[in-house]
Amino acid sequence: MQHEFRRVCGYERIAEKEQHMTLHELRVDFILRRKGCLSLPITGCIVWSLAALASFIVPPARANVALIVSYFLLIPISIAIARIRGEQVIGSGNPLFKLASMCRLMVSLLWAVHLPLLFWAPEFFPLSIAIGYGIHWIVFSWTIDHPVGLIHALLRTFLVLGGWYFFPENRVGAVSIAVVMAYLLSVWQLRGIYREMNSNVLAQSS
Q1: Contact at 8 Å (CB) between 147 and 189?
Q2: pLDDT score recorded for residue 13
Q3: Do residues 134 and 179 lie in contact, with contact meaning Cβ atoms separated by under 8 Å?
């Protein structure tokens, strides 16, 4: 598929540094090599579902701890899903892969906010982490030139805020369920984007 994309675009990347892709070509290359970037929302569904389930089992005082444990499962689960799907998470020759890495670093720095809230205002911790880890979807929306990221970030923010406010007795559970709902919509949208792009590439190559 990647070979077909390069052929349709009129070049073979024999020497990466000597070839230059347009922004549109970079976006197509990124989506095809990431196979629709589905490992991200699939992992999110799994991890936040675990956090929601744990919130109904552990004592309320330990719910934030369950959320932290679920969060640190993100990396191994996402790597496993990416390998199973054949996604290329780190790619050379396309700066959009580096942009994605920088976004992951950006949201990770928000732990400087999450941790003080965890220790001194724990009721705000699930709100902070749920919204904070959704802001990089705005950049992702620009990366693939589709509103899916904006929709996810905005919907996630409103659902999380609503869940946190209206269900104070189990804020971790409510917030986690809200995030899963946003991820499910993104999975459906990204599948459609990837299928449409695959069809366009195959049509141009035939």
Answers
A1: no
A2: 44
A3: yes
Tokens 């990466």 belong to residue = 16
Q: Alpha helix (H) ranges present in the chain? A: 2-8, 23-33, 39-55, 63-71, 74-85, 95-108, 111-120, 125-132, 136-144, 148-166, 171-205
Q: What is the pTM of this model?
A: 0.88
Cα dist from 192 to 28, 58, 72, 86, 153, whole Å: 14, 38, 29, 18, 19
Q: What's the alpha-carbon Rg for the chain, to the nearest Å?
A: 19
What the block records as the tokens of 145 is 């030139």
171 compared with 15, residue with greater pLDDT: 171
Residue 92 DSSP SS3 = coil
Mean pLDDT of 162-167: 98
Whether residue 136 contacts residue 186, with contact meaning beta carbons closer than 8 Å, is answered with: no
Compute the average pLDDT of residues 106-110. 96
> What is the maximal distance between C-alpha atoms in the chain?
61
State percent of the chain over pLDDT 90: 79
**Is the separation of the CB atoms in 73 and 47 below 8 Å?**
yes
SS3 94: coil
Q: In whole angstroms, how far apart are CA 141 and each of 37, 100, 103, 188?
A: 12, 11, 12, 15
CB 42 within 8 A of CB 66: no
